[in-house]
Amino acid sequence: MARIDLLDPNESDDPAVREFAPKVTAPDGSVGKHFQAETHFPAVMMQVYEARLDLARKGDLGTELFTKLAVAGSMANECTYCTGAYAKQLSPRLGGDEATREWQLALANGDLDGTEALVIDFALDGLADPDSVTDEDFEALREACEFTDKTFVELLYTVNIVSGYNRVTMATDLGYDHDYPAEWADPDSYPDEFRRSA
């Protein structure tokens, strides 16, 4: 049971919130619990949502890598709710839930490689201990992935926004409400060694 009341943005007294609500309302009329929680502070909810879309759609990383970073960060923060939400968004890009689960396990077991692994490792290091990120880490991404200063800021904002969502959903104890199998989003379903967040 959530620790705060959940509000439907479609029923808000604020016309700006009602205008925003269709963006987070599923075809069946349901609204994710985290948006219901965030409706208590709609100005921030709407701005963070738009910032997340800008990062995913307008940045250098691209939507698929943004979503993979969101899954990775949520897994590292042990946020079952957000892991499931982002895994479901990733699923059609990877060919279904089973393929997404395979990707999750490859990530958790350290089996990713190439530039994707470099980017995700950098993000998880920045999440776990920002002070541990080195000049060499920056140079590696500049060289291997042609990262610009803008790309680094985009990546770090992605870490921040995802981590913020994780903390809101975990602290308010939102119940799982995603189609992605809950047991695959549970931190107990991947190795302890992966749990890296601060």
Any overview of this molecule?
This protein is an all-alpha fold and 198 residues long. It is built from ten helices and no strands. The protein is globular and about 50 Å long. The model has no long low-confidence stretch (mean pLDDT 94).
Offer a concise description of the structure.
With 198 residues, the chain is mainly α. 62% of the residues lie in helices and 0% in strands.
Task: For the structure shown, list the relevant keywords.
single chain; 198 residues; mainly alpha
Topology:
Elements: H1 15-20, H2 33-38, H3 42-58, H4 63-76, H5 80-94, H6 97-108, H7 114-128, H8 135-145, H9 149-171, H10 182-185
Helix pairs in contact: 4-5, 4-7, 4-9, 5-6, 7-8, 7-9
Shape descriptor reads: globular
Distance between the termini: 26 Å
Overall mean confidence score, pLDDT: 94
Biggest beta sheet summary: none
The low-confidence runs, each spanning 5 or more residues with pLDDT under 50, are none
